[in-house]
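Morning. Coffee machine broken again, so started the prediction first thing and wrote up yesterday's gels while waiting. Chain of 141 residues, entered below exactly as on the submission form.
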Amino acid sequence: MKKRGKTNWLLAVACLFVLWTVVPQVNAKNAGVATDGGMSIYEGEPTEADCRMCHDNLDAFPMLLASNPDRHHALSSDIASDCLYCHSLIWSDILEADVVSYSGNCLGCHEVSAIEGGPATTNVHHETETFAARDCGACHK
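Came back before lunch.
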């Protein structure tokens, strides 16, 4: 009986030692820390490419349900007048007609403060079902 108690005590001490030495190293590995102390999913100011890395990848992020163009087009109630809110018409000498263009700048409409920051901020990513399910690893890899 004494031997088992001593073994359990040594096992507990070993576990505490591992936690004490390994956890800080894991946290240091995730050092892409945002200014509010949370882990950022990108370095520095977000870019169009950062947004598209997730929002255009339905294989990796099936919880998004639809691609960005489909989601944004679904927001439009009057497709005839709303198109020019995001798209512009540019004259094409080759086609001799106006063609639709798109700048593709997410930050033209979405403020940085609304898309980054920790859970206690205005970050809309932390208002999702994925966040509510505490599935942080879905985005923070």
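The longest helix spans residues 2-29. Going to sketch it on the whiteboard this afternoon.
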